[in-house]
Recover the amino acids of this structure.
């Protein structure tokens, strides 16, 4: 048994060790098999039967997952059932069978290829990964063309195993990971925002993806270590390596228990100042996990993913189904739904956006929404309808000038009037806020604050635009410094201007997720921190360990220093001198 170490992308932390289980899945065909003209109708009927079987299978799986994991995880099957309703998709397959006189297997393969190419042309990574939903449904239909007994992933097997797959279909991921006998996941394909990654994180199953060929390197009976923290997979480790990882595993499990304990504690500083930890999420399935990590609400729901559920633009029902699901799952805690932030480099084929020479400075987010008001109204109607529980707030991204708020309000009022005429219930007092992520908006925080109910600072974009450093460009990443004195001065200015206007202010960029920068934000007067749920315990631990008065003094001193490095060193040294346990769960910057 050979000992092999593979590097991939760790997408769900922790360590799993054990024997492997390999998944089997429907593969598309490379053989263009023809049928006689007289058999074409029969072939179409065979395809339609497979679609029907797929529908029944999805309904059954949905019920099973709902019982085992709860309503929010069964949502993926609704999305898949919707794809199955897409007449343009199904008739494209029937057309190929009829026109080219080929077997349905070939037609399905062609249509799948076309969709994959379409999704691949989208620059945004998160969007690209949603293509697997369409592929998932098509693969299921493919598997149902032949009536052979399908092998289910060892769901009746009580033995705990490491799951190895080329690429898990989202529905397969929901089904297999929910069974409770998966120790860890290792996949050839995938990225950090894939469904499998999100599910694995929310179920606390270690996972490494993007391993390229792990399925070819292993065979039944092999023993594996999957290190989801460092993105490593080890096949047939010698005893000494096994021992090393056993102790790493125990350390991580201890750390995880500490995180969970901290998650349940109150969000107050040593001198009893209340602060709030909120969650940034991208899928409705994440709500449960967010609360289990100590979220006191959903501070940012990035609505972009809804646009990827189908080839056409999402309908009001598509939007509503997602928003109402989140609002119900989080109730009575607040949910801040951000209107779509696409355009620029995150293009959408459905909208036929022109290619722009400088997309980061182009028709993005609210600019794009205001330029496509009919599309925007569909989203606004759905958000309003989901607000009837009164815990929904609406957040506008990338605002540059106050005129955009005026224009938004006109449209919003129009939509509200329409709903009133239709006697549809919604929250008439729904709160509206804007993201501060363009430096020009930061400078007029007072003007914008007067027009809205709350502000949310998107430090990821704000830093990129303020420092003129592309947030995704590795060549200039050394300049992307959240603790740059100019960034800190600007953020202090925004927070204090918002507070002077008596408006609520949150930070929902990465700065809220790092204990050190969160401390500085606390010192500036911030009380609402929204972040990836997994980081809530460590931020909570830090803010709970300190005394606001001390932090304010240290932060004030730090602002007189000249460089990001001096600031970082000063804050760490002074905080640790006074509160030695402040960074117990990590202090990463
Ligand atoms: C931000 O810019 O800080 C933000 C939260 O928005 P996004 O990361 O989605 O651009
Ligand atoms: Mg942003």
């Amino acid at each position: 048994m050979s000992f092999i170490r593979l590097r991939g992308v760790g997408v769900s932390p922790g360590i799993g060790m054990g024997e492997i289980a390999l998944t089997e899945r429907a593969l598309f065909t490379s053989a263009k098999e023809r049928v006689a003209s007289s058999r074409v109708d029969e072939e179409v009927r065979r395809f339609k039967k497979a679609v029907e079987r797929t529908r029944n299978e999805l309904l059954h799986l949905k019920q099973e997952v709902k019982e085992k994991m709860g309503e929010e995880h069964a949502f993926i099957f609704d999305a898949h059932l919707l794809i199955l309703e897409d007449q343009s998709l199904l008739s494209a397959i029937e057309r190929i069978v009829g026109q080219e006189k080929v077997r349905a297997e070939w037609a399905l393969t062609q249509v799948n290829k076309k969709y994959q190419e379409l999704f691949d042309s989208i620059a945004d990574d998160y969007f690209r990964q949603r293509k697997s939903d369409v592929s998932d449904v098509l693969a299921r239909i493919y598997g149902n063309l032949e009536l052979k007994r399908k092998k289910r992933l060892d769901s009746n097997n009580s033995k705990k195993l490491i799951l190895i797959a080329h690429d898990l279909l989202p529905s397969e991921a929901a089904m297999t990971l929910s069974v409770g006998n998966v120790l860890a996941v290792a996949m050839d394909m995938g990225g950090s925002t894939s469904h499998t990654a999100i599910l694995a994180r929310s179920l606390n199953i270690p996972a490494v993806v993007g391993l390229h060929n792990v399925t070819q390197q292993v065979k039944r009976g092999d023993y594996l270590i999957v290190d989801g923290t460092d993105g490593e997979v080890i096949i047939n480790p010698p005893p000494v390596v096994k021992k090393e990882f056993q102790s790493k595993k125990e350390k991580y499990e201890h750390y995880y228990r500490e995180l969970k304990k901290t998650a349940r504690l109150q969000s107050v500083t040593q001198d009893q100042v209340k602060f709030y930890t909120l969650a940034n999420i991208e899928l409705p399935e994440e709500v449960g996990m967010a609360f289990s990590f100590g979220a006191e609400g959903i501070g940012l729901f990035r609505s972009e993913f809804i646009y990827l559920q189908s080839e056409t633009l999402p309908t009001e029902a598509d939007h509503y189904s997602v928003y109402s699901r989140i609002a119900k799952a989080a109730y009575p805690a607040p949910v801040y739904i951000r209107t779509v932030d696409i355009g620029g480099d995150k293009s959408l084929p459905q909208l036929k956006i022109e290619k722009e020479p400088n997309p980061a400075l182009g028709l993005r987010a609210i600019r794009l929404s205001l330029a496509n008001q009919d599309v925007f109204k569909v989203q606004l109607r759905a958000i309003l309808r989901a607000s009837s529980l009164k815990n929904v707030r609406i957040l506008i991204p990338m605002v540059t000038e106050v005129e955009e708020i005026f224009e938004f309000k006109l449209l919003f009022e129009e939509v509200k009037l329409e709903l009133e005429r239709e006697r549809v219930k919604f929250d008439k007092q729904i709160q509206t806020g804007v993201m501060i992520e363009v430096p020009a908006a930061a400078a007029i925080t007072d003007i914008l604050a007067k027009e809205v109910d709350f502000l949310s600072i998107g430090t990821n974009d704000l830093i990129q635009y303020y420092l003129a450093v592309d947030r995704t460009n590795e060549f200039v990443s050394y300049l992307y410094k959240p603790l740059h004195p100019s960034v800190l001065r600007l953020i202090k200015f925004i927070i204090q201007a918002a507070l002077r206007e008596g408006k609520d202010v949150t930070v929902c960029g990465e700065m809220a997720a790092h204990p050190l920068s969160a401390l500085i934000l606390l010192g500036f007067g911030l009380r609402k921190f929204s972040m990836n749920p997994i980081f809530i315990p460590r931020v909570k631990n830090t803010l709970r360990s300190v005394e606001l008065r001390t932090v304010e003094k240290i932060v004030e001193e730090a602002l007189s220093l000249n460089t990001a490095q001096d600031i970082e060193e000063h804050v760490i040294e002074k905080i640790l001198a006074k509160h030695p346990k402040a960074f117990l769960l990590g202090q990463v910057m």
